Amino acid sequence: MGEAATGMRVAQLRIWKVAQTSFVLDAWDGVPWAVWQTDSARDAEILAEYAGRLCYQSWSNPSGRSNEAYLRNILAQEHFSVVEHAGFTVVLTGVSRSCTHELVRHRHFSFSQLSQRFYNEEDAAVVVPPLFREDPEALAILEEVYATTRAAYRRLVELAQRRLEGLPDRRLRRKRAREAARCVLPNMTETHIVVTGNHRSWREFFEKRGSLHADAEIREVAVRIFQEVARPLAPHLYQDFEVVRRELGAGGVADTLERRHLDADE
Q1: Given CA atoms 117, 118, 120, 126 in this order, what sign does their dihedral have?
Q2: Fewer Cβ in 10 A, N or C end of the chain?
C-alpha cells in the first residue's frame, strides 16, 4: 500500500489462491477405470483426463500417451466440457471498482465482493490506472479528486445520519447513510473480491481479458492470475496459452495472454 504526499492511499494488486478442486476417487476394484493410470500428479489434470476417458471408455492406454498429450488433443478438439469439472478460487485486493465492473460480466464465475453499504469507505485506498502511474500531472489530478470525494463522502454520511436520526436501529441508520453517500466514490476506489470459476471459465477469461485490446488494469489482473495461480496449478490445461510482451506505442509495453492453435490427433 503506497501513500502520496497528500495522503492518497494507493493500493497494489495482490492475489491469493483460496481453494482448488481435489481428485478424491477411491473406487478402483470392479469398475471400468480399474486399469487406468495417469502420469500427472495434479488434481485438475487428473480429473480432466478421467472425465475425457469416461466419455469414450478409453481406460487402457497401450501407446503410453501422457496426460499432457491427452489433454493437448482434448484442447485441440475444443472438448472443453471435461475441463469444467475442476476449478479454483482466488481473492483479489488492490483492484478498482472500475475493474470489477468488467470482471463481474463473466457470469460463469461466482463472486463475493466488499460491500460499500456496510463498509466505511472514508479512508478507502485507490487504484491508479496503469497509464497514469508514472505521470506526475495525472497523479496530481487524482490526488485532488481523492481529497474532494473523501471530504464529500464524510459530509454526506454525517448529513444522512442527521436525516435518519429518528430510526431506532443504529446499524440500519449507518447502512442507509453509507449506501447513499457512496454515490460520490470514484471508479478508482479499491475493492476486495473473491472469484470462483472452473477451468473452462478461466480459459475464456484469460483469452478475452488478457488481450492487448482489453482494459489495461483487468489485463494485468488476468496475466497475474494466469502466472501465479492457473498455470502453476494445471499447466497441461493451459498449454495453448503463453504470455507475450507487446509494444503499446510511445515507449509503452504490456504483457498479454495469447492462445495458440493446437493440432488434433488424427
Answers
A1: negative
A2: C
Query: What pLDDT digit, counting tens, does each position of 86-139 carry?
Result: 999 999 999 999 999 999 999 999 999 999 999 999 999 999 999 999 999 999
Q: Can you give the residue range of the structural domain that contains 78?
A: 22-83
Nearest Cα residue to 176 out of 184, 187, 165:
165
User: pLDDT (tens digit, 9 = 90+) per residue, 173-200?
Assistant: 999 999 999 999 999 999 999 999 999 9
Q: Are 113 and 174 in contact (CB under 8 A)?
A: no
Contacts of 116 (CB under 8 A, 6+ apart): 178, 179, 182, 185
Give strand pairing partners of 193.
92, 113
Asked if residue 102 is part of any domain, the answer here is no
What is each CA distance from 161 to 61, 124, 151, 164, 177, in whole angstroms? 70, 20, 16, 5, 6
Give a yes or no: residue 70 inside a domain: yes
Contact between 135 and 18 under an 8 Å Cβ cutoff? The reply is no
pLDDT at 48: 98
Nearest to 146 by CA among 110, 175, 189: 189
Total domains present in the chain:
1
- Asked whether residue 186 is domain-assigned, the answer is no
Evaluate whether residue 130 is within a structural domain. no
HEC string of 61-100 equals: CCCCCCHHHHHHHHHHCCCHHHHCCCEEEEEEEEEEHHHH
Q: Which residues belong to the active site? A: 209
Q: How far apart are CA 59 and CA 77, in angstroms?
A: 19
Does 266 score more than 80 pLDDT?
no
Lookup: cell for 211? 488481450
Q: How far is CA 17 from CA 28, 57, 93, 227, 243, in A?
A: 31, 34, 12, 12, 20
